[in-house]
UniProtKB/TrEMBL annotation:
Species of origin: Thiohalorhabdus methylotrophus
Coiled coil: 135-183
Alphabetically ordered keywords of this record: Coiled coil
Gene3D superfamilies xrefs: 1.20.5.340
Name the UniProt record assigns to this protein: Lipoprotein
Top-rank taxon: Bacteria
Length: 184
């Protein structure tokens, strides 16, 4: 038994030394981790996304640039409705983009990337809104043109009936004139 004790101790020390060489499996706040979180957040349903948003909103305090602040910005970026969609990601990213303390480059670079995404999404949303307005205007214009065409078609029908009546009357007058000429 006494021979097993030193062997057990050596085994424990070897295992502990091996643990030090393993990669960390938890979130690091690096680009890969944040990109993975972006994909994860984009796939969330509305209720889960709202819960995640509330959790991160409670965790992010002060004006420090942290990976959780970037995750909160990601949640506001991918949200289409709910409380997260009403938050302004550029405000959330403020400390990472121009705060008084200089954040680590990995966080700052990801913040600039997210800011670029925000700007592009806003531009696309603005363009989509302009297109919707234009489509609505064109649909209204098309509807008015169809109505005007219908009115013109009805008026054309009335004028054709009137023309036919006038032609019949003209033919009748010509017949009367011929019969008068034949009597004379």
């Amino acid at each position: 038994m006494s021979g097993l004790r030193p062997a057990g101790t050596v085994l424990v020390l070897i295992l502990l030394a091996g643990c030090g060489t393993l990669n960390r499996s938890g979130p690091t706040g690096g680009a890969d981790d944040l990109a993975s979180y972006y994909r994860y957040a984009a796939a969330l349903d509305k209720a889960t996304l709202t819960g995640e948003y509330r959790n991160f909103r409670n965790w992010v305090t002060g004006s420090r640039c942290t990976p959780d602040r970037l995750r909160l910005a990601i949640l506001t970026l991918v949200a289409e409705s709910g409380p997260a969609s009403k938050a302004d990601p550029s405000v959330v990213l403020g400390p990472c983009l121009g705060g008084s303390e200089r954040p680590p480059p990995r966080l700052r670079n990801m913040a600039f990337l997210l800011e670029d995404q925000i700007r592009k999404r806003r531009d696309l949303a603005k363009h989509a809104h302009e297109l919707r307005s234009r489509v609505n205007h064109l649909e209204g214009s098309l509807s008015e043109q169809r109505k005007a065409r219908q009115e013109l078609t009805e008026k054309k029908g009335e004028l054709e009936k009137r023309l036919k009546t006038l032609q019949e009357q003209l033919e009748a007058l010509k017949d009367i004139e011929r019969s008068i000429q034949q009597r004379d």
